[in-house]
Amino acid sequence: MKLFLFDFDGVLVDSLDIYEKTVTECLIKINQPLTRGREEFLELFEGNFYESLVQKGVDLEAFMKASIDILARVKIKDIKPIEGVVPIVEELHKNHCLIVISSNETASIREALELFKYDGYFKEILGSDFMLSKKDKILYAIKKYQLSPDDIYYIGDTTGDIKEGKQAGVKTVGITWGWHSKEKMVSAKPDYLFYKPAQLLQLN
Predict the structure, then answer these.
(1) pLDDT of 140-179, one tens digit each?
(2) Which of 81, 111, 84 is nearest to 10 (CA)?
(3) Nearest alpha-carbon partner for 103 in 126, 73, 136
(4) Which residues 6+ apart lie within 8 Å of 90 measured at CB?
(5) CA separation (Å) from 68 to 63, 71, 108, 196?
(6) Of 12, 23, 173, 180, which one is least surrounded by beta carbons within 10 A?
């Protein structure tokens, strides 16, 4: 058995517009707005999202507090599933353990998984309310499931995902249908780089 750790936004669902709007509104609310639009937003995911905010001088406690009301207004049905991913997840689930590791909140992820027919494929959802560091969440999964890091794959769509997967010592899988460009993902040097969901079955 292998352990597949899936990032959520950009890998399983197309949520860039919604997530960017949410983060932008939170930062405006605490008077620390983004000034360069999407480019600056995507730069926050070149490392750990929450650490990137702190490095920009954002008061993380104020940001998290501001996000409560704004996240409550997000309509999950406005997010779209990534075409072709559900059957791949279903296939991997047959012989392996699947978990979601994300910077998003668990309740929103769970609602979206149910809506888009992913329900039942993932053993756990480790969202921002569990830990903020993806590296720490991966280390938690290694310890809990007692598998060799060689049998654990973290699948992400940003250079930050790949960095945190490498820091945790697991196999890293970069995908190019998500938030960061193909060029950025190549520069992160993941162990695997896939251009379409069906290629994930090579890991089966």
Answers:
(1) 999 999 999 999 999 999 999 999 999 999 999 999 999 9
(2) 81
(3) 126
(4) 121
(5) 9, 5, 12, 34
(6) 23
Checking if the pLDDT of 77 tops 90, the result is no
Strand blocks (E) in 15-89: 80-81
What is the rounded distance in angstroms from the CA atom of residue 97 to the CA atom of residue 111?
Answer: 20
Comparing CA positions, the residue from 188, 11, 169 lying closest to residue 83 is 11
| pLDDT (tens digit per residue) in 8-36 | 999 999 999 999 999 999 999 999 999 99
**Type of residue at 82:** I
Using 50, 70 and 90 to split pLDDT, how confident is the model at 119?
Answer: confident
CA 125/CA 129 separation, integer angstroms: 10
CATH number of the 3-14+80-203 domain: 3.40.50.1000
Residue with tokens 């780089």: 193
Domain ranges of the chain: 3-14+80-203, 16-76
- Hey, which residues does 194 pair with through a beta bridge? 175
- Range list of β-strands (E), 62-166: 80-81, 97-101, 124-126, 152-156
Structure-token pair, residue 191 = 């162990």
